[in-house]
Amino acid sequence: MPDTVLPTQLVELAEKVIIANRRAGRTVAVAESCTGGLVSAALTEIAGSSDVFEAGFVTYSNDMKAELLKVSHDVLDTFGAVSIATAWAMAQGALKQSHADVAVAITGIAGPGGGTEQKPVGTVVFARAERGASPDKVVADMRHFDNDGRGGVRLQAALCALELLLPGDA
């Protein structure tokens, strides 16, 4: 186990992701918003991860989602930053801006503020895009995590995102 300040369960899952994707011959990229680089940090905690982990984009503001990941302002204005449409566009953008085979995007409301009745604190949206997959094959999900503090929401979101990076046979 690497010497880390990250939660053990996060590093253990990241190691599983690196090993499984290496075995599958896949590279991965991550587009993060509410997790602020936590998924990328976990993946890069694993020695030798550079042959699997291609890129991490931390796009916290809507302007950066648009500029770096090419998420359209129309999508952001119509559906909001915390939406399946935005997460899907972020995942697609991470694929286009990298050479990765698979990308996962995370966007949500970690708290303590920022939540609404429709999207309370703990609302996190995930999307996975795979290079060469049919564009209408959207893999996306909105989850509502327990609001056990900002760190707790971010950890739950990072764990979920790592799970999405596991190949189907892992």
Automatic annotation (TrEMBL):
SUPFAM superfamilies: CinA-like. It comes from the Bacteria. InterPro entries: CinA-like_C (IPR036653), CinA_C (IPR008136). Residues 12-166 form the CinA C-terminal domain. This is Competence protein.
